Amino acid sequence: GYEITGEFEMYQESFQEMGKALLLAVVLTYVLLAMLLESYIHPVTIMMTVPLGGVGVALALFLTGTSVNIFSMMAVIMLVGIVVNNAILILDYTQQLRLEGQTAVAALCTAAPTRLRPIIMTNLAIAIALVIAAGVGMVVMSLGIMRSLEATREAYYDRYRFADIFDPAKS
Known about the structure:
The chain is mainly α. Helix content is 85%, strand content 0%. It has helices at 7-37, 41-47, 50-64, 70-99, 104-166. Helix 4 (70-99) packs antiparallel against helix 5. It is elongated, with a radius of gyration of 26 Å.
């Protein structure tokens, strides 16, 4: 028999695939951090910041009135890398301060404000680049559509013009 499906089923399938991609991103990020840091504990510390990014995502979606869709899921997958990068910056500097003899709390209280500016600058640069890329992408896409329409118009023009020239009934 036949099965009638609609956009909702496609949406569910896409959402499931994005969930798998998010899980894969988190697992691969942990494995990579475990190999780079040669530790099982530090990657856990870094990965504990990912749910905090999820709180920010929920708040941002609520404040902007945006629904959870494919684009927001892709942004969440990208956010995993950004949040991990921020955590690495703070953890690395905290470890340096601990090696200099500071306690864990004192090192964190020093590292967080010190690394805040570089983190904000990096995230702002990423956000600006994404906005510019989205704008350029829209322009390129619209130019592609215009070129496609122009090519279609030219094809029809050429077809009918040559049809008129070679049609013996119109000569």
